[in-house]
Amino acid sequence: MEELTGPAPRMKRAPRSVRRRFDEATLRERLNALFSLGALALVALVAVNSISFASLVSSRDTLLDRVDPASLEANQLVVAYLNEETGVRGYVLSANPVFLQPYYLGLAQVRDSSSRLTDLLAGEPDLLRLARKA
Fold first, then answer.
1. Residues 91, 85 contacting (CB under 8 angstroms)
2. Exposure pattern of 26-45 as b/e (b: 16+ CB <10 Å)?
3. Of 18, 60, 111, 133, which is least packed with CB atoms within 10 Å of its CB?
4. Is the pTM of this model over 0.85?
């Protein structure tokens, strides 16, 4: 209990020379120091904000120039696979070669879409690996 009721520990004080300089400073000097620190903080904040904004713009460009077009191309690839499936199903049910037309059309579309998708994702190895997996 004595530990809690004893005198509060004293905090370290600044060296005498620093305290004396601050105590002897005029109001103008103190305000100059305050505004200088504020300006320094503002400059640091602007620098951090600028770096963040540049990163955001870079990410946005990547999204608009590569990822969005690749997403559209992946959708076209799904449509091509659907065309192939439709052609095969029609031929299997009817044994009529006319129903293979969507299949052959889908084959060409798959080749074109796959190469375009590979070109669009050339700078994105993780996305390219996922696209090849699918």
1. no
2. eeeeeeeeeeeeeeeeeeee
3. 133
4. no
